[in-house]
Amino acid sequence: MRSKFIVVGLIWVGLVAATLPTLIKVTLFYPSSWPKPVYDFEKSALSKEGISLGRKLFYDPLLSADSTISCSHCHLSYTAFTHVDHDLSHGIRDSIGTRNSPALMNLAWNDKFMWDGAVNHLDMQALAPITHPAEMGENLNNVIAKLQRTSSYPKLFQAAFGDSIVTGKHILKALSQFQLTLVSANSKYDKMKRGEYDFTEQEQRGYQLFKANCNSCHQEPLFTNGAFENTGLPVDTTLNDYGRMLITKIASDSLRFKVPTLRNIEYSYPYMHDGRFKTIRQVLNHYGDGIFDSETLANELKGGIPLTSNEKVDLTAFLLTLTDKEFLFNPEFAFPRN
Question: CATH topology for 188-322?
């Protein structure tokens, strides 16, 4: 059975009376074979006005301390909403962060965010980069004051939330509304699942290799299990980043980082939490013979994943079928021109 799917992931479904404004309600559509999102849309419904406001905020450098860095600075729409020109995030005043920027897509299916899971709800996630001294370096009260002084934002907040007074809650809510629309489900892989595309022999061989070696952590259809795993990377002695353990303070979480989605992996390099690998081949080589053994190493990686050179080519061919160009170049996700 073919999945019901709107390419942009949304459909306007009519007017809904809110407290003051009349909102255009939005429903998120996704393939019927996918699990139900974990984000509670009944408690926090999407609206065209909220999404539009969130999109404008996402691209606005006013959210940073010196008005030079926007969310999109590290999350570029045409590179799977991450950056590709450096391994670690860059912030205000040429500061350098401590981690690679994660790709943003299919966030409605996530209940933990950041490489270490420090944030457990999308409505709060943006607060972390806004206030991080090496990223946007701002505090929410200053952001509120700056937005309130503009001629445009009070009107947009009025339209979205029924109040022209800018609040931190509504800033974060609008940002999450826009990010929830970033649904990627129209790659060659998805078309194959819908019966609209036949894998080549090489892609099919790669798919079988993927299911045999990778699917336990990068589970279909989201290509992540949302868990935190030690993938055998030796700790960078400069960053000294021990991942999830920094949040939980539990030794068994040492060197565990969130399993990223493989969707759009062709465009989301560099890879790993610290961006140490620039190519898919380097990642596969690491899993073949570069594993650093430790007590918390994922069981699936004990002994590594030995692949021949040809198998690495086949597996890469499959991974490239996860590229969703309609998502990457969707004008609804790009910088707002009006």
Answer: Cytochrome Bc1 Complex; Chain D, domain 2 (1.10.760)
